[in-house]
Amino acid sequence: MKKIGLYFGTFNPIHIGHLAIANHIAEFSDLDEIWMVVTPHNPFKKKSSLLDNHHRLEMVYLATESYDSIIPSDIEFKLPQPNYTVNTLIHLQEKYPDHHFNLIMGEDNLKSFHKWKNYEVILENHDIYVYPRVSEGQVETQFEGHPKIHKVDAPIMEISSTFIRKSIAEKKDIRPLLPEAVWKYIDEMNFYK
DSSP secondary structure string, 17-83? Predict the structure, then answer.
């Protein structure tokens, strides 16, 4: 039984913060692989700054190709929109019965996890690996010390895709924040300018 960690994101663009966390969890937890699940453009949301699905997926491919245990995934592109995580998990479990899927989320997401659709079902069937984030608010007491919620001592990465997009638009050199292949792709495609 392969243990897979699902790391969801728009990855607009993927940056070294995402990679540092994914790699840390791959190396220092009991998960065998980390799947970077690129969340599709929600057709009900107007988001002009969000690149097309295939471009964001391509950047995740470029960023992860030298990591054996970090795998890009477009699984959510094929599911009806708007989609909920619980549906993705059901779909994956049916498609890969020999894998056990777990969620990876920042502490900021854990704080609102009780508002997720069918969160009890998710917790019943899947483990959650939580990495630290600097954020306001409290984690619900029902999740404190929960046997299925694992705190991961990953480095705190204070880098945001929003900051990167804004900086590129302002013609700042932010190459150290992006995997080299991703920076080249953004530059060649003239994204975020």
Answer: HHHHHHHHHHHHSS-SEEEEEEPPPPTTS--TTSPPHHHHHHHHHHHHTT-TTEEEE-GGGGS-SS-
pLDDT grade, residue 133 (50/70/90)?
Answer: confident
d(CA 150, CA 131): 9
The domain that contains 30 carries what CATH number? 3.40.50.620
Query: What is the pTM (predicted TM-score) of this model?
Result: 0.94
Q: Answer for the pair 8, 18: CB distance below 8 angstroms, yes or no.
A: no
Q: Which domain holds residue 76?
A: 2-189
What residues contact 147, with CB distance under 8 A and at least 6 apart? none
CA-CA-CA-CA torsion sign (108, 109, 113, 116): positive
CA 163 to chain centre: 17
Tell me, what DSSP letter sits at residue 1?
A: -
Return the H-helix or E-strand segment holding 91: helix 85-95
Rounded mean pLDDT, 68-84: 94
Structure token digits, residue 32: 């065998």
Q: In angstroms, how far is CA 107 from the centroid of its own chain?
A: 13
* CA dihedral sign of residues 19, 156, 53, 191: negative
Domain count for the chain: 1
